[in-house]
């Protein structure tokens, strides 16, 4: 590869000047001939001619050799990918680009053996192992392992949202957030579960869903060791230990440990009932009450007694029934 490149550079350096001086008597040939027969991983220049290393001729027939002045063909020094014809100014740029065609990943992490196409990607990856965060926010001093992550973070301080949806004009701080949002307009769900074929708009949603099938619960409470499928469930659970209730009703100042509970509570003040039965048109403020109501129409009884197999349409009715088998009498006369 390096010998090919040296030859190409020699040919290109002199090509412009030589075309001006060449009388036609020398053995010029197209650069495409020069690289013909080289494998798909080779490199060619967009310079039009190359000259073989033979005595060059001045106009008038002199056989004295001619040397092109340094820099005479800077405009001609473009290296072209033989696969897709994309052009590059530097050999190193082309060599890196060629790996997108060959799949070459010569840079390997010594810790986890993951491989990378370019050395810069390996350097960034190594920070995962070292914990290095060299990029610091000048406002809040939060540190990041990648400059791109710092740039995105800075928008939380500036309020900048450079990515705009062309459909509804909603703006976003990250291009990825815009791409995900656009799927709400297109209906696209590119991430499919290989087990049940359910599809999702976000890769993160698919990863979370897969835990239903695998039973994985990677988020563990440090207090009681209870495990959860998603990090949000763990955060909510931790409030049962801390007593924190960060969600406050602006009307009556009642506080809640979950945002969903606050949303449901607010409907008491607004009178909103967003859940409507398609059979009898009865409306409900709570989705749980709505689901229970639907069972009066469908006859569904999803709660089954493990002792006698009797079924119930509500969990509370099953709990009451189980006391027949256990003999439990939780209510005492005072």
Automatic annotation (TrEMBL):
UniProt GO BP: positive regulation of transcription by RNA polymerase II
Superkingdom assignment: Eukaryota
InterPro entries: GLI_C2H2-zinc-finger, Znf-C2H2_11, Znf_C2H2_sf, Znf_C2H2_type
GO cellular component: nucleus
Localization per record: Nucleus
Residue stretches making up the C2H2-type domain: 79-106, 107-134, 135-162, 163-190, 191-218, 219-246, 247-274, 275-302, 303-330
GO MF entry, a single one: DNA-binding transcription factor activity, RNA polymerase II-specific
A Pfam entry, by short name: zf-C2H2
Keywords: DNA-binding, Metal-binding, Nucleus, Repeat, Transcription, Transcription regulation, Zinc, Zinc-finger
Signal peptide range in chain numbering: none
Entry-linked Gene3D superfamilies: Classic Zinc Finger (3.30.160.60)
Region annotation Disordered: where it falls in the sequence: 42-69
Family to which this protein belongs: Belongs to the krueppel C2H2-type zinc-finger protein family.
The protein's name: Gastrula zinc finger protein XlCGF8.2DB-like isoform X1
Taxon lineage: Eukaryota, Metazoa, Ecdysozoa, Arthropoda, Hexapoda
Gene that specifies this protein: LOC117651583
């Amino acid at each position: 590869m390096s010998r090919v490149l040296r030859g190409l550079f020699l040919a290109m350096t002199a090509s412009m000047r030589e075309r001006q001086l060449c009388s036609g008597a020398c053995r010029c040939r197209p650069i495409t001939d020069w690289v013909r027969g080289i494998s798909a991983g080779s490199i060619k220049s967009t310079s039009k001619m190359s000259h073989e290393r033979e005595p060059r001729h001045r106009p008038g027939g002199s056989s004295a050799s001619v040397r092109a002045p340094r820099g005479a063909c800077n405009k001609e020094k473009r290296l072209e990918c033989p696969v897709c014809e994309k052009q590059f100014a530097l050999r190193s740029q082309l060599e890196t680009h060629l790996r997108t065609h060959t799949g070459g990943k010569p840079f390997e992490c010594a810790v986890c053996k993951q491989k990378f196409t370019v050395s810069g990607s390996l350097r960034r990856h190594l920070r995962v192992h070292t914990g290095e965060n060299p990029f610091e926010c000048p406002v809040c001093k939060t540190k990041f392992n990648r400059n791109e992550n710092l740039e995105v973070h800075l928008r939380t301080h500036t309020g900048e949202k450079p990515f705009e949806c062309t459909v509804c004009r909603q703006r976003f701080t990250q291009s990825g957030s815009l791409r995900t949002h656009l799927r709400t307009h297109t209906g696209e769900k590119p991430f499919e579960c290989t087990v049940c074929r359910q599809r999702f708009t976000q890769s993160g949603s698919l990863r979370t869903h897969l835990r239903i099938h695998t039973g994985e619960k990677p988020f563990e409470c440090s207090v009681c060791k209870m495990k959860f499928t998603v990090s949000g469930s763990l955060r909510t659970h931790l409030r049962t230990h801390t007593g924190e209730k960060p969600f406050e009703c602006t009307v009556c100042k009642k506080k809640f440990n979950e945002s969903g509970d606050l949303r449901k509570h607010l409907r008491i003040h607004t009178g909103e009932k967003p859940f409507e039965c398609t059979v009898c048109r009865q409306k409900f403020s709570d989705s749980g009450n709505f689901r229970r109501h639907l069972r009066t129409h469908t006859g569904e009884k999803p709660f089954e007694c493990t002792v006698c197999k009797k079924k119930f349409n509500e969990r509370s009715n099953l709990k009451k029934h189980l006391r027949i088998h256990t003999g439990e009498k939780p209510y005492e006369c005072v």
